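2024-03-11 09:14:02 INFO receiving multi-entity request
2024-03-11 09:14:02 INFO entity count = two
2024-03-11 09:14:03 INFO echoing inputs for audit
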Amino acid sequence: MSAAIASGAEPRSRQRHSIFRNHLVRAAISLVAFILLWEMGSRLKLPWVGAVPPPTVVMKALLPLLTDQGYWYSWYQSSRRVLTGFLAAMLIGIPFGLAMATSRIFRDVTFPVFEILRPVPPLAWVPAAIIFWPTQELSIGFVIFLGAIFTIMLNVIGGARSIDLRFFQAARSMGSSNWDIFRRIVLPGVLPSIIVGCEVGIGITWNVVVAAEMISGGGGAIQSSAGGGLGFFIWNSYIGGSYPLIVVGMISIGIAGYISSSIIRRLGLLVTPWMRVR
Amino acid sequence: MSEAAAAVAQHAAKGAIRIQNVDKVYYAREGRVQAVSECSLDIRAGEICMIVGPSGCGKTTLLNAIAGFHDITGGAIYLDGQMLCGPDKPKAEPGPDRVVVFQNGSLFPWKTNLDNVAFGPVVQGRMTRKEAAEKARGMMADAGLVGVEHNYPGEISSGMRRRVEIVRALMNDPKVLLLDEPFRALDSLTKSVMHEALLEIYYRNKVTIFFITHDLEEAIFLGHRVAIMTTRPCKPKKILDVDIPHPRNYSVLTSPRFRSLMEETVSAVHEEAVKAFEAGEKEM
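2024-03-11 09:21:47 INFO inference complete, emitting structure
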C-alpha cells in the first residue's frame, strides 16, 4: 500500500508484533523478580514484608484450593456480581453521561447531585445499601455499581466535550441533522472515552468487591472457601487468621481485575478500529 | 473586464458571493472587538478569490459568517442573489452549498477515507451509502487518491488528508468552497504539489473558491483575484487582479509578471502586518 509508505505510517503491525514479544519477556522478568524479592524479604523477616507469608507458603495454601469447588465458586460469585454491577453502571452511566454532555438543561439540573454523590466512597454506601435493598445480592450489586458508574459518566462527559468543534461544523455544513450529528459525530467521537471509562471502571468494581461482599456474610456458607465471593474469602480468611489465604484472595482479585481490564481493552479496540493507527 | 474576470465569466455558473457592508462585533475578555467593519466584496461565480491579511485580522470571522457558523452584526451576505444572512437573520444556515475545508483538517478519524468522502450525500439523503461510496471512489481516483479508500485518515500523509478533505467537500456539489488556510501546516514542497492538485480539481469542477491564506505566493499563484484585507477591523484594502491566464502551473512562479505582482502585494500586506504587530494581535 503505497499510501501507508508515503505517510510514514509504515508496517505498524509488524513493529507491534516484535514489541509485543519483548513486552511478554519483560513482563515475565518483572513477575519473577517480584516473586523472588518477596520470598527473600519474607524469609529474612525484613520490616513490613516479613509479616507477609512468602510465595512458597502462599502457593502451598493455593494448590489444594485449585481443586476446591468452593474457591472457584467464589470466583464465579464475584465475577457474576462484578459483571452485573458493571453492566448496570454502563447501561445507566453511558446514556446519562451522554445526556449530560449534550443537553445543557439536563446537565444544569443533574450536575450538582452528581457531584455531591460522586466523592462518597462505595464503602460508605454499604450500610445504606443494606437498608435500601430487599436482598443481599441487590445490596452487593448496588455497591459495585456505584464503584463504576461515576468513572464511566465522567469519561463520557469529558470525552463528548473534547470532540473537536470543527467536526460538528464540518458535519453541519455538509447538511447533517441533529440526529446525524449525535449518531455520526458524538457517538463515535465519545466511544474511545467510553472504553477508557469502562476499563478504569471495571478495575474499580474489583476494588470495591471486598467491601461489597462483606455484606454477603458468606452467602449462607460457613466454611472459608465456600461461595461468598473472593472479597468475602479475604475477609473470612482474616477472621479465621489464615494469612496465606488472605494473600491468595488478594492475588485472585488482582488477576481477575487484570483479566477484566484486558478483555475490555480488547473489545474496545474491536469497536474503535481507527484507534489502532494512532 | 480584466482577462482574469473574462476567463471566469466563461464558466460562470453558480456561486457568486456578495458581501455587503458586513460588520461583526463581539465581546471578548479584552472588551468590545470590532472584527469586521463595513466590509464589502463581490466574488464572482466560479472565481478563485484569495483573501490575504495579517493574523487575526478577521478573515476567518468572514468565512464563519458565510459558512453559517457565526452571526454578523451588520450588513448582509448573498449567495447568487439570495440572502444568507442580513438584518433580520444575523446567522446563515450552514448548508452543503458552502462547504468548509479547515486549517487543521476535519476529516472524521473514525471513518475511513472513503466513508468520509461519502458522508455528505448520505446525510443529505441524496444517495444511498452504496451510491455515495461509488461516486466517492470515482472522485478520489480523479484526485489521485487510489489505494487509500479503506485507510483511516490517521494512516495517510497530511497532504493526502487535505486532498481527501477537498474531495469530501466537492462531493456535496457545493457552489462555494470555503478554504481556511488549508495548506498552512504543510511543508513547502507538499504545498506546491497541493496547489497544482487543487487547480486540477478546480478546472474539473469550477466552483467558486473563497481561500484564506497568509502565503502571498500561494495567493497569487492560485487566485483570479487577491483581496488584501486591512488588520482589524477587516475590510478589503486592495483588490489585485491576477492577470496570469489559467490553467497555470508552477513555471508561472518564475515569470516576470508573477514577480511584479508579488512586489505589489508584498508592500500592501507588509503595511498591514506591521499595524497588526504593533496592535499586538495574537496569532490566530
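2024-03-11 09:21:48 INFO post-check: Residues 6-12 of chain B have pLDDT under 50 and may be disordered.
2024-03-11 09:21:48 INFO post-check: DSSP finds eight helices and ten strands in chain B.
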